[in-house]
Amino acid sequence: MTTLMTPDELEARLRDVGRRRYHNLHPFHRLLHDGKLDFGQVQAWALNRYYYQAMIPVKDSSILARMEEAELRRVWRQRIIDHDGDHDGEGGIARWLTLTDGLGLDREYVTSLRGLLPATRFAVDAYVHFVREKSLLEAIASSLTEMFSPGIIGERVAGMLKNYDFVSEQTLAYFEKRLTQAPRDADFALDYVKKNARTPEQQEAAIRALEFKCNVLWVQLDALYFAYVDPKMAYPGAFAPKETR
């Protein structure tokens, strides 16, 4: 890129990344929402996704520590509270464990991470390293997948409630909160990127950061698909479903 885009042009480019690369396009996502997965495959999804959820406040703490302005820190720290809660049993991570509990997964086993697919761990760890090593602008831009998440969340909840008798509104409560949290967070991050990407190089870096984050989400579904759907060859030591229902 050699030409500086207007803030609105940059936003359009960022939103185009989501239209082309967001993981709502992944075959595993379609199988999950359309009721085409069996019980064990849904368990595998929830168990592996737990690691991503658990590392979100770690990622956000890294970003928070690099913010020099108190105003930015006050806004960004809400993300950590949203996931960790103020007390035990509160927050997004606790709500995700309600989902894994509801799917019959032993909580200690889930939180031990013993059943993770290697690619899940590599992808999530790569995201944490990215926000630590790249510029603050790139770290914030990578969070902009939240611009696209309300659509996928609505589709996910409706599809799962319709197609799976082993989930309920209570077990899917994590997603209800994200319908308000994600747009709030995305609006702030988008405003920051539009104001602080002041050169063509910075704008390009912001776009590439969002592409990277889409890749992180996509490759997690790749791992699930090739381990539990086709050819159903889970890695040694990874979670092995016992029930199909």
Protein described:
It is a single chain. The chain has helices at residues 7-21, 27-33, 39-65, 70-84, 91-102, 107-112, 118-133, 136-142, 149-163, 173-196, 200-229. The longest helix has 30 residues, at 200-229. It is globular, with a radius of gyration of 18 Å. It is mainly alpha-helical. It has one domain (7-229): Up-down Bundle (Heme Oxygenase, Chain A).
Protein traits:
single chain; 245 residues; mainly alpha; Heme Oxygenase, Chain A; globular
Question: Could you provide a short overview of the structure?
Answer:
This protein is mostly helical.
- H/E element order: HHHHHHHHHHH
Helix residue percentage: over 70%
- The CATH superfamily appears as Heme oxygenase-like
Q: First CA to last CA: what distance?
A: 52 Å
Low-confidence stretches: none
The overall strand count is: 0
Mean pLDDT: 94
* Biggest beta sheet attributes: none
Given helix and strand content, the structural type is mainly alpha
The CATH topology, please? Heme Oxygenase, Chain A
For the record, the count of structural domains works out to: 1
Note the topology.
Layout (H helix, E strand, L loop, with lengths): L6 H15 L5 H7 L5 H27 L4 H15 L6 H12 L4 H6 L5 H16 L2 H7 L6 H15 L9 H24 L3 H30 L16
